[in-house]
Amino acid sequence: MPQTRIGTSQDLLQELRGWVEHETPTTDPAAINGLLDKAEAELRAVGAEVERIPGRDGFGDHLVARTPANAAHGNRKPVLVAGHLDTVWDHGTLAKTIPFRVEGEKAYGPGIYDMKSGSFAAFHSLREILRQKVATRSPITLLLTSDEEVGSPSSRALIEAEAAKACAVLIPEPAGNPGKACVTARKGVGRFVVRVQGQSAHAGGNWEEGSSAVVTLARLITQIHALVDLPGGTTTNVAPIWGGTRPNVIAAEAGCEVDFRVSSIAKGAALVDAVMAMAGPQPEGTNVTITGGLNRPPMEESPAILAVYERARAIAAGQGYDLPKQHRGGGSDGNFTAAMGIPTLDGLGCSGAGAHAEFEHILWEELAPRTATLCELLETLE
């Protein structure tokens, strides 16, 4: 059991409601900064050393909070716990689509599952450790970021810099559904943009003078789809697509976006090479340009990750629940830290369902035991 008094799930839900009802779409840095203001003020009030990193490129700020220097920690590296405050939901979702509400074991709200409940659990754990003056084996660093839902373009360097100093990284992204599992491996994630330049012509009178960008794109889509290897953990998905102007005009332009997922860095490199080889002049007389690549490296399971997992599983058992592990196709900021060789355990947040969907919810009665598990990890890892 953690030394820190966490409170009841009802208590936690009451405070979490304020976070959920403060809407924070990635596209509104001011809204995200407003929630960061609240977190910063409360952490400073209990003695945290807080650094606020100004947002850039249209994104919100990032917040780093540390436990004060303590001679008892010696030269131990800190435990890093990292979450994000941005959500995929636009302003007005709370009023029109997913009002905060509790129905039996489920608590609903925009971003409550992905991942305000987890980020709140991390914040709450650090705040209460400091407020209650609980001794921890290692220093603690809390990182709250503002742009994870779009790939962490302005926070990746900060995440990696903090991870490089850490002995372990904890990511309170949502627990698995079904199974309520934490995450010991994630696929790498990448994107491409494919653009085809052709030659327009009248589709009836001058067909032979045209070069259809749409025909080239159609062929490339089937080639990209053929790279799918489900047993090997590789998937591709082409969407959206565009091209042409009118039925009677040979299409001069066409294009698409591609999402791909891979289970290892080697497979990612092979897929990138295969897709990039499709660029250049084409048999139809068109030309293809392709941009993009792997933007989140795979989080590959390792003995060091499994050691942290076994510690978390033992703590969870003390809280009265089983904590299985899983490999997940979606990416998180844990992909970055695991790829650096830092032991990273992900999916430590609350279970539920509906990430990015209109039925997004958590199983709110798990808030206390899940937060207690995270808190005890923060207290005891070294």
UniProtKB/TrEMBL annotation:
<keyword id="KW-0479">Metal-binding</keyword>
<keyword id="KW-0862">Zinc</keyword>
<dbReference type="InterPro" id="IPR011650">
    <property type="entry name" value="Peptidase_M20_dimer"/>
</dbReference>
<dbReference type="InterPro" id="IPR001261">
    <property type="entry name" value="ArgE/DapE_CS"/>
</dbReference>
<feature type="active site">
    <location>
        <position position="86"/>
    </location>
</feature>
<dbReference type="GO" id="GO:0016787">
    <property type="term" value="F:hydrolase activity"/>
</dbReference>
<dbReference type="InterPro" id="IPR017150">
    <property type="entry name" value="Pept_M20_glutamate_carboxypep"/>
</dbReference>
<dbReference type="InterPro" id="IPR050072">
    <property type="entry name" value="Peptidase_M20A"/>
</dbReference>
<dbReference type="Pfam" id="PF07687">
    <property type="entry name" value="M20_dimer"/>
</dbReference>
<dbReference type="GO" id="GO:0046872">
    <property type="term" value="F:metal ion binding"/>
</dbReference>
<protein>
    <submittedName>
        <fullName>M20 family peptidase</fullName>
    </submittedName>
</protein>
<keyword id="KW-0378">Hydrolase</keyword>
<dbReference type="InterPro" id="IPR002933">
    <property type="entry name" value="Peptidase_M20"/>
</dbReference>
<feature type="domain" description="Peptidase M20 dimerisation">
    <location>
        <begin position="184"/>
        <end position="280"/>
    </location>
</feature>
<dbReference type="Pfam" id="PF01546">
    <property type="entry name" value="Peptidase_M20"/>
</dbReference>
<feature type="active site" description="Proton acceptor">
    <location>
        <position position="148"/>
    </location>
</feature>
<dbReference type="InterPro" id="IPR036264">
    <property type="entry name" value="Bact_exopeptidase_dim_dom"/>
</dbReference>
